[in-house]
């Protein structure tokens, strides 16, 4: 069957028939993958009752309506009349519904108006906005700030009122040149400041500056390219992370691409309608992260995911499989490293999907729906105990009767291993091919840079682009005899933001969104992170990559606890020379010593706190840490030593 990338290349070669070929590409790419967005069947196809009734404790509102106390009977729709699809609530156990009905405010919003049909509201709101029948301020508040997240739309109320960040689903981080040009087209109209594209720490893409009135065209365009934004935010399974070197790595243990796509389809493809958005998993207690690692490098960061699959051969049979780790996450109240589950599964599609489905089912129906800070999977695992949770998962998988078995965890490798770098030029397992990793500072891309990447991909990597959790990109399958030409391209020259061979500090930068767009952030991160990295490169020399992560608040979306050096926004005070008083200023905490890879470790306590963010305060602190902890030397001293040696 002809591939999506081959179709894209045919389109390029026939510029005169551009519009026609674009339509053909979109249609055939959908049909070729089996993920077509076909019309929904009639409601009767579901074999669901139209409502489900449960008894729950009455509220004051109930008593006023019914004229009495005690328990009240509450009916919840099981099928959404507008979509013909089941509701997320209809898949919950009665106990879960009962707990949600008296749970936190988000749970009550989800019960009152099911989130899995939020995309319909997006289309309806957009139509009314375009006709001038309403303004964005008149959109229902619970929709604007909560429910529309089910369509991947996150309102940035505090920073850019009326504008949204749209989060996509990009399993295993694989995109193509057509995608990149489409992203550029989506954001360009909003201007260089607001209309940008971000690569995330989940190998994902976020489009910024989006207005509701434009969202339907973007959603339709994504679906035509076999992508979606549905169920990418709030209480859903987030983007499924895999190895960015899948299929091209000579040290690969598992090709994660098929497995990531299979899990993505499990959670976001309706098995009945074959349309995007799966109500079965449309009402989880909290977000849920899955990472599937393909090698000992653990490029997927399994230690900070709810479910992490670590490639491990069976000690007796040699069959390749996964040890399973559970419960890793970062939040404002708790940062937890995943724990071994004593489970091993075969590295095949059926086993991976069945295990994920089993854990999700238990989490969906038994996870906490009260305190949202105690609703992640780790809390449920701890409530069970690891061994009992394993037993529950085994029973659940056995009930599916798919021939999947879960065995005890297998011993991991003991030979020394050094995690390999993703930036720069590296040989692939395919003879005559190389992968080329390119820095995207802080993961931020302009529309122009998106198109530049698309052009490079078309010219050198058959249109294919890989995203990494370090917020950078990889062009795979570059002909060895074309690498030199790629390195000479103006888009990746040393005076540009995009670089193939950046310095050890600027090349390992990770940053959350920051205060430019995020209302939770205490500081601006992306622009400051990029500027500070450049200054450090001019001041010191290091002999290995140093990972500096920035995050605007304790939620740690920038994963500072996993970094060599992590900078978290926080309070600080500094002497005001005019008044002689200590004044509150933007500041940070500094974490040191996090690790990734096989010996992953989270640094949970800051080395420094209350450091002002101005260069005069922060830069000296970072230089001292780089020297004391990582062997950095002054740039001038290094140049002097090199000069004397040459004599």
TrEMBL record:
Which family does this protein fall into? Belongs to the nitrite and sulfite reductase 4Fe-4S domain family.
Q: Answer yes or no on keyword Iron-sulfur.
A: yes
Its protein name is Ferredoxin--nitrite reductase, chloroplastic
Q: Which domain of life is it from?
A: Eukaryota
User: Which cofactors are required for activity?
Assistant: siroheme
Q: Which reaction does it catalyse?
A: 6 oxidized [2Fe-2S]-[ferredoxin] + NH4(+) + 2 H2O = nitrite + 6 reduced [2Fe-2S]-[ferredoxin] + 8 H(+)
Endpoints of the signal sequence: none
Keyword entries, A-Z: 4Fe-4S, Heme, Iron, Iron-sulfur, Metal-binding, Oxidoreductase
Entries under Gene3D superfamilies matching the protein: 3.90.480.20, Sulfite Reductase Hemoprotein, domain 1 (3.30.413.10)
Provide the E.C. number(s) assigned to this enzyme: 1.7.7.1
Domain Nitrite/sulphite reductase 4Fe-4S intervals: 235-396, 508-612
- What broad taxonomic lineage does this protein's source fall under? Eukaryota, Sar, Stramenopiles, Ochrophyta, Bacillariophyta
Which molecular-function annotations from GO does this UniProt entry contain?
A: 4 iron, 4 sulfur cluster binding; ferredoxin-nitrite reductase activity; metal ion binding
Q: Where is this region: Disordered?
A: 43-67
Check the record and name the InterPro entries matching this protein: NIR_SIR_4Fe-4S, NiRdtase/SiRdtase_haem-b_fer, Nit/Sulf_reduc_fer-like_dom_sf, NO2/SO3_Rdtase_4Fe4S_dom, NO2/SO3_Rdtase_4Fe4S_sf, NO2/SO3_Rdtase_FeS/sirohaem_BS
The residue ranges of the Nitrite/Sulfite reductase ferredoxin-like domain are 157-224, 426-489
- Pathway given in the UniProt record: Nitrogen metabolism; nitrate reduction (assimilation)
Residue ranges annotated as compositionally biased, kind Polar residues, are 44-56
Instruction: Tell me which species this is from.
Output: Cyclostephanos tholiformis
């Amino acid at each position: 069957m002809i591939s999506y990338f081959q179709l894209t290349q045919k389109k390029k070669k026939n510029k005169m028939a551009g519009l026609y070929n674009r339509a053909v590409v979109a249609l055939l790419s959908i049909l070729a993958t089996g993920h077509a967005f076909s019309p929904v069947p009639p409601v009767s196809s579901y074999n669901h009752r139209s409502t489900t009734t449960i008894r729950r404790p009455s509220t004051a509102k109930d008593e006023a309506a019914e004229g009495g106390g005690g328990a009240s009977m509450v009916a919840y729709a099981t099928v959404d009349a507008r979509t013909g699809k089941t509701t997320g609530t209809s898949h919950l156990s009665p106990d879960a519904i009962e707990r949600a009905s008296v749970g936190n405010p988000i749970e009550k919003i989800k019960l009152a108006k099911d989130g899995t049909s939020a995309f319909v509201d997006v289309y309806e709101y957009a139509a009314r906005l375009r006709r001038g029948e309403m303004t964005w301020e008149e959109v229902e508040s619970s929709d604007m700030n909560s429910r529309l997240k089910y369509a991947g739309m996150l309102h940035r109320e505090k920073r850019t009122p009326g504008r949204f960040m749209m989060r996509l689903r990009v399993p295993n981080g694989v995109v193509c040149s057509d995608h990149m040009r489409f992203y550029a087209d989506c954001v360009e109209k909003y201007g260089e400041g607001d209309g940008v594209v971000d690569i995330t720490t989940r190998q994902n893409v976020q489009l910024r500056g989006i207005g509701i009135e434009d969202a339907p065209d973007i959603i339709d365009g994504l679906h035509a390219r076999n992508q979606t934004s549905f169920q990418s935010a709030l209480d859903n399974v987030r983007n499924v992370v895999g190895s960015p070197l899948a299929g091209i790595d000579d040290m690969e243990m598992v090709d994660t691409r098929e497995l990531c796509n299979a899990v993505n389809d499990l959670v976001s493809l309706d098995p009945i309608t074959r349309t995007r958005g799966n109500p079965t998993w449309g009402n989880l207690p909290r977000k849920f992260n899955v990472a599937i690692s393909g090698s000992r490098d653990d490029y997927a960061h399994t230690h900070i995911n709810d479910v992490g699959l670590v490639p491990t051969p069976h000690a007796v049979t040699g069959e390749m499989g996964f040890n399973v780790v559970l419960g890793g996450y970062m939040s404002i109240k708790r940062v937890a490293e995943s724990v071994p589950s004593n489970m091993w599964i075969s590295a095949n599609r059926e086993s991976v999907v069945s295990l994920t489905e089993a854990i999700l089912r238990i989490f969906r129906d038994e996870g906490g729906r009260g305190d949202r800070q105690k609703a992640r999977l780790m809390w449920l695992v701890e409530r069970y105990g690891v061994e009992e949770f394993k037993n529950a998962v085994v029973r659940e998988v056995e009930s599916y009767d798919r021939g999947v078995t879960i065995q005890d965890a297998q011993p991991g490798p003991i030979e020394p291993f050094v995690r390999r770098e993703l930036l720069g030029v590296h040989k692939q397992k395919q003879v005559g091919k190389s992968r080329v990793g390119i820095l995207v500072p802080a993961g931020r891309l302009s529309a122009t840079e998106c198109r530049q990447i698309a052009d490079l991909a078309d010219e050198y990597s058959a249109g294919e682009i890989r995203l990494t959790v370090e917020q950078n990109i990889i062009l795979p399958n570059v002909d060895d005899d074309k690498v030199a030409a790629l390195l000479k391209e103006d888009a990746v020259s040393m005076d540009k933001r995009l670089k193939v061979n950046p310095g050890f500090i600027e090349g390992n930068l990770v940053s959350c969104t920051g205060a430019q767009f995020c209302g939770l952030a205490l500081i601006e991160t992306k622009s400051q992170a990029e500027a500070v990295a450049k200054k450090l490169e001019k001041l010191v020399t290091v002999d290995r990559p140093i990972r500096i992560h920035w995050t605007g608040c304790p939620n740690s979306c920038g994963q500072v606890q996993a970094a060599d050096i992590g900078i978290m926004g926080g309070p600080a005070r500094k002497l005001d020379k005019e008044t002689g008083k200590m004044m509150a200023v933007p500041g940070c905490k500094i974490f040191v010593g996090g690790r990734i890879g096989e010996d992953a470790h989270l640094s949970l306590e800051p080395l420094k706190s209350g450091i002002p963010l101005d260069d005069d305060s922060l830069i000296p602190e970072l230089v001292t840490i780089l020297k004391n902890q990582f062997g950095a030397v002054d740039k001038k001293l290094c140049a002097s030593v090199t000069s004397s040696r040459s004599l």
